[in-house]
């Protein structure tokens, strides 16, 4: 299965994304991420979640090929709702979520990581929101939690990426480690959290969300409205076709 969840004896629940070749998730994949996080919230034996990935990169966003191979707007609407559910589940997870980011973290991946509580990354990790290339808008809400506003706007408008090591200075990435040490680094933070009384940590998570200056759910939903407009205008479909064609030519 692309999404797996395993609870360790110390209360650390490890949720892993494994959807080759690039962890671009299908509509169902996004809902599966949401379900894994919701299950973690409901399980009082879960003290903290580590969200990680297998393969070349953490997450490449939505599965564009699924969208282009589906007639009508069902896949688009599904992806919008699935991403919203997954990002919301990370943010509202009753316990802290530690994101362990390897390789690329793009689009929807930024949505997941931006809503996490702690981020550790490998030396080859980088972040980006290339939505404008595919005629979509989204994840600016979450990128704005990783970098300052003007940096976010530059990354958004240019579709550039930024290496994880550059985010340490902003405090959004806790540390950058060699790739073979990433899981250990994430587990070190997670076990530090897990050793505390989960009743207190769960209260703390709810408390910190309550004083957050930005309503991430409403902010992201606002972004999605513009994506729908671009799709209705035919712009997004044209750009996604170009993207899918480029990908096919590489194979």
UniProtKB/TrEMBL annotation:
Alphabetized UniProt keyword annotations: Lipid metabolism, Lyase
Pfam families: ECH_1
Gene3D superfamilies: 2-enoyl-CoA Hydratase, Chain A, domain 1 (3.90.226.10)
InterPro entries xref list: ClpP/crotonase-like_dom_sf, Enoyl-CoA_hydra/iso
CDD domains attached to this UniProt entry: crotonase-like (cd06558)
Coiled-coil regions listed: none
Family statement drawn from the similarity comment of this UniProt entry: Belongs to the enoyl-CoA hydratase/isomerase family.
PANTHER family according to UniProt: (7AS)-7A-METHYL-1,5-DIOXO-2,3,5,6,7,7A-HEXAHYDRO-1H-INDENE-CARBOXYL-COA HYDROLASE, ENOYL-COA HYDRATASE-RELATED
UniProt protein name: Enoyl-CoA hydratase family protein
């Amino acid at each position: 299965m692309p999404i797996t969840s395993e609870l360790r004896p110390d209360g650390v629940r490890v949720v892993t994304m494994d959807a080759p070749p690039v962890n671009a998730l299908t509509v169902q994949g996004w809902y599966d991420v949401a379900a894994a996080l919701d299950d973690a919230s409901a399980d009082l034996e879960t003290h903290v979640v580590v969200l990680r990935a297998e393969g070349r990169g953490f997450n490449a966003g939505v599965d564009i090929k699924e969208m282009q191979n589906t007639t009508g707007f069902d896949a688009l609407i599904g992806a919008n709702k699935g991403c919203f559910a997954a990002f919301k589940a990370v943010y509202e997870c009753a316990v802290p979520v530690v994101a362990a980011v390897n390789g690329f973290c793009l689009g929807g991946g930024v949505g997941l990581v931006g809503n996490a509580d702690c981020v550790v990354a490998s030396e080859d990790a980088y972040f980006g929101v290339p939505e404008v290339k595919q005629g979509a808008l989204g994840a600016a809400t979450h990128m704005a939690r990783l970098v300052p506003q003007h940096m976010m706007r530059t990354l958004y408008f240019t579709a550039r990426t930024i290496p994880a090591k550059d985010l340490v200075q902003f405090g959004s990435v806790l540390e950058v480690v060699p790739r073979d040490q990433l899981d250990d680094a994430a587990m070190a933070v997670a076990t530090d959290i897990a050793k505390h009384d989960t009743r207190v940590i769960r209260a703390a998570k709810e408390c910190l969300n309550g004083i957050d200056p930005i309503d991430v759910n409403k902010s992201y939903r606002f972004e999605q409205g513009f994506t729908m407009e671009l799709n209705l205008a035919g712009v997004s479909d044209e750009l996604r076709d170009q993207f899918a064609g480029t990908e096919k030519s590489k194979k």
